[in-house]
Amino acid sequence: MILIVDFGSQYTQLIARRVRELNVYCEIHPYNNLPEFNDRIKGVILSGSPCSVREDEAPDIDLQNFNGEIPVLGVCYGAQLIANKNGGFVLPSEIREFGRAKLSSVDTHNELMKEMSINSQVWMSHGDTIAQLPNQFEVIASTPSVEIAAFKVQGQDTYGIQFHPEVTHSVEGKIILRNFVVHICHCSQDWTPDIFVETTVEELKKKLGEEKVILGLSGGVDSSVAAMLIHRAIGKNLHCIFVDNGLLRKNEFHDVLASYRGMGLNVKGVDAKDKFYKALHGVVDPEAKRKAIGKVFIDVFDEEAHNIEGAKWLGQGTIYPDVIESVSVKGPSATIKSHHNVGGLPDYMKLDVVEPLRTLFKDEVRLVGNTLGIDKNILGRHPFPGPGLAIRILSDITPEKISILQEVDHIFIKGLRDRDLYDEVWQAGAMLLPVQSVGVMGDERTYESVVSLRAVSSVDGMTADWSHLPHDFLSDISNEIINKVKGVNRVVYDISSKPPATIEWE
Ligand code: XMP
């Protein structure tokens, strides 16, 4: 395993992604809460940081623990920290160095730099620079403006690089990470979905024995994959609950429930539509909607869970980015929308939590799902928010509005699938606006609702671009919606990106 020490850089997760792409297992831990050192740790990568090693309160760790014993690679701040602690000089750069640079010299005899090309493009992002190295350090790469772009400590497997090998703009960055992880740390490249499934199922069997687990399915990728893993380990002792909150897409509850049953899951579908509609009656504020939905969900889930006698565990589909977010150096970023659908369970349920996907990134969850043979329809589906259509109906929620929006959404999503555009967008849906507009149908004047279609491309939902869907496709969908959905006489297409807009309208 590779230990990645997080000093708060925006790129720390990317380092982990790149290491995992080499099929090597790694974990990120904040610098101020590191695990005990053990034989499993074959190498350490020190991340970048928004801080400067010259500050009094600069994040720091005791390098003695592994210096000389385990290979260490410092990236940007990590490299400056190694140099600074050993008697080198780190100074503010005369020009702040952000962006592309080219390696003007590189020592390809050095293990870390093997197979790197001269002129290779690298990505710089730093305000400080290493002005002078300690005596026993040697320079192994330079750019025209950064002489000490990479260094090695003589007689030790300790390295530093000033640029960021983890970002794709460092074109050969993967070579450096491979050299470090595979050739210097000697990690075996056996972190594959198959091995993950095999070892996780074994661990779950040991951990859970004959005990019962309850798990709330949402129809999304994470909870479905978590359920299948636990199911492989304990079969019918996994009791799944799938709640119909009445805010899902058209036919979704029945279709997804049938898929789950087809996969052999022991799942109970609970129709709680009326409870959700009642709690949402007259609620307009988006955050109040989320709170109301979260509360009813807990009540319904709790009631169902009580019917499952002797349950000891609560299964959850928590994935690695959620885990890192909750322990990261900077802590969770400011709440723009409260994205929690399940605001935690009441204390008296006192169940232990089992989270088999805690160490996986989203795309790894999909690979694992694929290995488990999960329905492509579930694995490949767009993200859908927990509060569902409630946050796509601007203003108050009524069953009539939900049914209008379900029809509109259905035409849009089916159209995307039929035209092979579904997989090209990251997420798509429709918003029902609190606006009536004048139209004309036949000889009649109409005064009806406006819907906005939204489709975006994104990697993780944090930023997103509006999708440039073909005009003739949008035109066909608009016609179909206005002709088929009673109550809608105007369709608009949202061309805002995130930021500054968000993906959902509420
Ligand atoms: P925004 O609107 O913040 O959405 O750009 C980013 C991603 O998060 C989803 N989203 C939610 N998911 N509960 C969820 O489970 C929520 O309350 C919620 N709000 C937004 C949104 O669909 C998009 O994928």
UniProtKB/TrEMBL annotation:
GO MF, one example: GMP synthase (glutamine-hydrolyzing) activity
Keywords: ATP-binding, Glutamine amidotransferase, GMP biosynthesis, Ligase, Nucleotide-binding, Purine biosynthesis
Chain positions recorded as ATP binding sites: S218, G219, G220, V221, D222, S223, S224
Catalytic activity, EC: 6.3.5.2
Active site: C76, H164, E166
Pathway: Purine metabolism; GMP biosynthesis; GMP from XMP (L-Gln route): step 1/1
Keyword field contains Amino-acid biosynthesis: no
Role played: Catalyzes the synthesis of GMP from XMP.
Protein name: GMP synthase [glutamine-hydrolyzing]
Organism whose genome encodes this protein: Splendidivirga corallicola
Upper classification of the organism: Bacteria, Pseudomonadati, Bacteroidota, Cytophagia, Cytophagales
